[in-house]
Write a structure and sequence with these properties.
Number of helices: 4
Distance between the termini: 24 Å
Strand order of the largest sheet: 3-2-6-9-10-5-4
Mean pLDDT: 92
Strand content: 35-45%
Structural class: mainly beta
Helix content: 10-25%
Radius of gyration: 17 Å
Low-confidence stretches: 1-8
Largest sheet: 7 strands, antiparallel
Number of strands: 12
Length: 176
């Protein structure tokens, strides 16, 4: 095993690694696979995201990172609500569909969708769904960081989890 360390103090504006090196490093960070959804003026919209994490439990807050170059960015920029649908191992085809170039209508023709109290599409058989209000948006580098206060949670306690690790899908069950 080879471990590389950076033992020098670096100013915040200094570039420490190349984008390629960064992406390679991030491939070693396992992450839950989510479909983030909202209801825009043109109908439902959604994208696949692994850049989702907890910020606080009081108030319950998550963050979602969205590339400003993404086709759905303008829809989410106009939205006040979103849902984070955490996928199970059998839902990797949905992850690929929402992470690709498929038209929005086609994305939502797959899977069993309902509507959350806040109006966002919710995947009925997801491992967990977080219904959220977007409370703040920060632009950082190429992405917007959406801070989302959780207003409701639907939890499937029997579900396993779909993870993305080393550029591939993996599942984790409660037995691990």
């Amino acid at each position: 095993m080879t471990i590389t360390a950076l033992n020098e103090v670096v100013t915040p504006s200094a570039r420490t690694v190349s984008p390629e090196t960064y992406r390679k490093g991030m491939s070693g960070l396992a992450a839950a696979v989510n479909i983030v959804t909202t209801a825009g003026p043109q109908g439902p919209a959604g994208f696949t995201a692994t850049a989702v994490c907890s910020v606080s439990d009081d108030p319950a807050t998550l963050l979602v990172c969205l590339n400003r170059g993404a086709s759905v960015h303008s829809i989410f920029a106009q939205s006040q609500h979103l849902a984070i649908n955490t996928l199970t191992s059998v839902q990797s085809p949905l992850s690929n569909l929402f992470g690709g170039k498929a038209p929005m209508a086609e994305r939502f023709e797959n899977g069993a969708w309902t509507t959350s109290a806040n109006g966002s599409p919710v995947l009925s058989d997801a491992a967990v769904c977080f219904d959220c209000v977007i409370t703040e948006v920060k632009s950082v580098a190429t992405h917007d960081v959406l801070f989302c206060q959780v207003t409701d949670i639907r939890l499937n306690e029997e579900a396993d989890a779909l993870l993305y690790y080393q550029r591939g899908y993996h599942s984790v069950s409660q037995d691990v």
